[in-house]
Amino acid sequence: MKFIVTGGAGFIGHNVVQQLEALGHECFIIDNITNYGFVPKDELEYLSNKRKDRIRSNVHHIDLRNIKHVEDFFRAFASGCAAVIHLASFPRQKVVSANPVWGAEVMSTALVNLLEQTKNHRIPKFVYISSSMVYGDFEDDATEDYNCRPQGQYGIMKLMGEHLVKDYTRRGCFDHVIIRPSAVYGEYDVEDRVVSKFMLSAMRGEVLRVNGANETLDFTYVEDAARGIVQATLGSNAKNKTYNITKSHSTTLLEAATLAIKIAGKGTVEVRNKDADFPSRGALNINAARRDFGFDPKVDVEEGFRRYYEWFMASPYWSKKLK
User: Fold this and answer.
1) pLDDT in tens, 128-182
2) Does the pTM exceed 0.70?
3) Closest by Cα among 186, 161, 179, 146 to 281
4) Cα–Cα distance between 109 and 102 in angstroms, integer?
5) Phi, then psi, of 263 in degrees rounded to 5
6) For residue 140, what is the DSSP state?
7) Which residues neighbour 276 within 8 Å (Cβ) at sequence distance 6 or greater?
8) pLDDT digits 0-9 by tens, 93-116
9) Which residues contact 188 (CB under 8 A, 6 or more apart)?
């Protein structure tokens, strides 16, 4: 089958493409390889090149806000496509808060451009990658029907995107699947994320700053998250439904920092107050994904962190940086 994958050269996206290709499918990637205003140029170039080396599909450098370029792309590649998998987005709340106008254009205008083209070219399915941030505060075992009360513009825009997607289905344009991942980490990610910061700070022997010792996250290894997205995309039972795709196990930030120090063999912890801009989160319930398409995350946090550490150690780029 053929798939259009937006953000297919990104951290999660290239893993999704790699898994689809391994199953014999063909992917057409849209990705503008942006730094979102915070990724250093040399780091972005390194990661982009390494991600491209792991997939066969060509990357088409298109800004999804540019409707003409999006139209041209769909005109060239949409015929016979089984689904659009939409991963392209601002990556997290901090980046949206720093530039909310740009964030709104990427997360809303670009989404509508894609939805319109999916409708116009009669592509039968749209897979929207949302976020656990749509829930706001939640405790362990939250299911997909939990009352969503997002805090901050990132979560609000992600939830708004869900409603836009559902409205196109309501109008008979196509079927959809909505995916809510949480705290995805692993190889080929940028440094400026929680697990990356913890691991690299520990490897440098620095202080790991923990914003709220008892705050928890449902850390999910990237290969598991990508597998869940692929299974939901291909699954016949996942029609017009929403799924949590996570490890479904909460780990405190203090435990995560301590584990990074244990693996690296150095580093210290500084516990600070909780970040007031972020909701308190637990583990999400993944029973629906287990039932409908056999989702079964394999990698626990300790194994995932160790794999990530070993990748840093083997990476020429990071080996040089860490010296």
Assistant:
1) 999 999 999 999 999 999 999 999 999 999 999 999 999 999 999 999 999 999 9
2) yes
3) 146
4) 10
5) -70, -45
6) T
7) none
8) 777 777 888 888 989 999 999 999
9) 11, 14, 15, 47, 50, 51, 54, 222, 311
